[in-house]
Amino acid sequence: MAQLIQMSTEQLQQLIESVRTTATSSAAAASAAAAATTSTKSKGSFSNCPSRFGGQRDHEAVEEFITSMTTYKEIECITDEDALKGVSLLFYGMASTWWQGVRKEAKTWNDVLSLIRDHFSPTKPSYQIYLDIFEKKQDDSTAIDTFVCQKRALLAQLPDGRHDEETEIDLTYGLLNIKYRKHIARHDFKTFRELLEKGRIIERNMMEDLSQTEFRGPIRGARGVKRCTYCNFRGHTTDQCRKRRNPEGGVRGGAAAVAQEHVQ
After folding, report:
1. Buried b (16+ CB within 10 A) or exposed e, 213-231
2. What mean pLDDT do residues 47-51 have?
3. CA neighbours within 13 Å on the CB side: how many for 103?
4. Could you tell me the pTM of the whole model?
5. N or C: which terminal CB in the chain sees fewer CB atoms within 10 Å?
6. Residues 6+ apart with CB under 8 A from 70
7. For the chain, percent helix, then strand, then coil, each to nearest 5?
8. Which DSSP symbol is given to 170?
9. Taking Cα atoms as reference points, which of 129, 127, 130, 149 lies closest to residue 138?
């Protein structure tokens, strides 16, 4: 049988205060342990980073690698000090050999980024960038999204503030294929986004028109349909004409041969 314990008001208050102090201490300890666990987990490295760099001397490849590497570093909460120590894990081939020779020059994380850009993606002079921009116009096989993206990437390599968006659009618009410029006047849009939206509509319409033309087949009397200059029938050429090759058959035989050929 449970015994009934009687406590004075003072004893009850002391018991409550003791329980409260114990609970507070336990919560603080749990919080400290969780913080320590988080700190341990957040200390990562580049060992699981999917990006690797082999030393390509290509501006787009270098910038893609730097962006991917920097993003991974931020997500994994890798400190600059740890990143500086572990960045060699991301190099292979020529890049690994290069890093062995220049790693002593990298005192900070920003030094690493600068060294990569300076060696594998040196800044082109502005005149060279302009030559690259105007070197090639849009051909029939290049989609407008791809073409505009390529030209904007080149324009981004120019010094900051060289051109505003309107001027960049003017430069790009003049290089578009005539099939776009025939339907999109320069004053019909003000941003690259509007240009791309209108260009995509034109591409969809052209694809639909092409599919309908292929479904209908050649139109009677249209250019491109073969016509024999000997018998004046369509569907074959003079070299293929059976009437010309068999003149002994007479008009009746020749007409029958031509009719049979036409049916085939």
Report:
1. eeeeeeeeeeeeeeebebb
2. 89
3. 14
4. 0.51
5. N
6. 113
7. 65, 0, 30
8. H
9. 149
